[in-house]
Amino acid sequence: MSQETISQSIDAIRKFAHPLTGSVKDYDPLMQLIDNAQFVLIGEASHGTHEFYQQRAEITKRLIQEKGFTAVAVEADFPDADRIDRFVRGVSKDATAADALADFQDFPLWMWRNTDVLNFITWLRQYNDTLPDYGAKVGFYGLDLYSMYASMQAVLKYLEQVDPEAAAQARHRYSCFEHAGEDSKSYGYATTFGLSNSCEDEAVNQLMELQRCMGEYAQQDGRVAEDDFFDAEQNARLVKNAEAYYRAMFQGRGSSWNVRDAHMAETLDHLVAHFERQGKQPKIVVWAHNSHLGDARATQMGKAGEWNVGQLVRERYGQEAVLIGFTTYSGMVTAASHWGDPAEIKQVRPALPESYEAVFHQVELPQFWLNLREENSATAGLQKSRLERAIGVIYSPRTERSSHYFQAKIPAQFDAVIHIDNTRAVEPLDRPDEPEATEMPETFPTGL
Question: Do 278 and 228 fall into the same domain?
Answer without folding.
Answer: yes
